[in-house]
Amino acid sequence: MSYDRSLSFQYNNPTKIIFGENSVSEVGPEADNLGCSKALIVTDKGVVEAGLAAKVEKALGYRYTGIFDRCIQDSDFHLVNEGAALAIEKGADILISVGGGSVIDTAKGMAVVMKEGGRLQDYEGIQMLSRPQTPHLVVPTTAGTGSEATWAAVIKDRDQDIKMLICDYHLIPNTAILDPSMVAGLPSKLTACTGMDAFTHAVESIHALESQPISDAMAFQAIGMITEHLPRCVKDGSDLFARGQQQLAATMAGIAFSNAQLGLVHALSHSIGALFGVPHGLANSILLPHVMLFNLEDCAPRYKSVALAMGLDVNNLSDLEAGKAAAEAIWKFTKEMGIPQKLSETGIPGERLNEAANLSMADGTIIYNPRMVTGETELMEIFEAAW
User: Fold this and answer.
1) What architecture does CATH give domain 188-386?
2) CATH architecture for segment(s) 16-182
3) CA triplet 119, 122, 125: central angle to 5 degrees?
4) What is the mean pLDDT of residues 328-344?
């Protein structure tokens, strides 16, 4: 990658990461290291039914004080505030989130309400907090969001059908335990879609306006690891080596975008997720190549580097040709894993895409996109191409 003398950045990665098979056994000692003794597990019904929450409860031992298992896809403010009230009632001094991105983001929100009081809605925005929040330890059960190491929580306001961003360095979890055995049972379709969420994080952090050398290094490594190992995870969920590599890649991509920011793919995905309930990883997977082609003339050299990270032979191609090859390779990659290729396959009503375009213009990630978006007409062109 090339940079110039104007390069200036900050890099932040405070999360302690523990990796390895059966490393979930470390959850108790890690709570001790954070000076905590009363842990509330935050999770969802599916994780409970799979027996994964029970593993964490056993590892916590006497530190376990209760469970909030009402998390859902696209968590909302009401659930966050309800969960925080339960944690306070139980006297919890640490949250242990066990689940995917929505579970982790729910716990991030709960940590704020437990420390600051009021409602989570009061803290919407960027850098609204002035001190560390309730300690938070994460045990991911998917390998895509990277939320275990990011500064953002995406919480849905169901009254307005919008996704709201809360971004603050004090939201970043204290510790992440990446145990491949905790993701071994993830269904193949969900594995593929959450994996493409991580892939999108890596690509968007590379083309985002705040990209920088350290986050780029994380992102390029993540792209290579996902390209190699995600299809193996989809084909054989019991392949714990591949599962572990995908976990690491997802966390690395999360660290990358938490420093470099995101872009137009996420602005569009947030909108169709909020309006139509399209799973976030699936939306990202479908939209990523279309946005890359939209951005191509503004960041072709970076997309050539993406192509190289994917293992494509593009050294003899121009930057524009290589960038286009990267987008086409992503289509092939996702198709081979059985991921839908068109928004029309997700059940979105085509006549309402204009609502999504309008909502996307107000999304906070759009300002970091390498190509300036001048209006809804451009976004409609992307949506229609992806339809």
Assistant:
1) Up-down Bundle (1.20)
2) 3-Layer(aba) Sandwich (3.40)
3) 135
4) 98
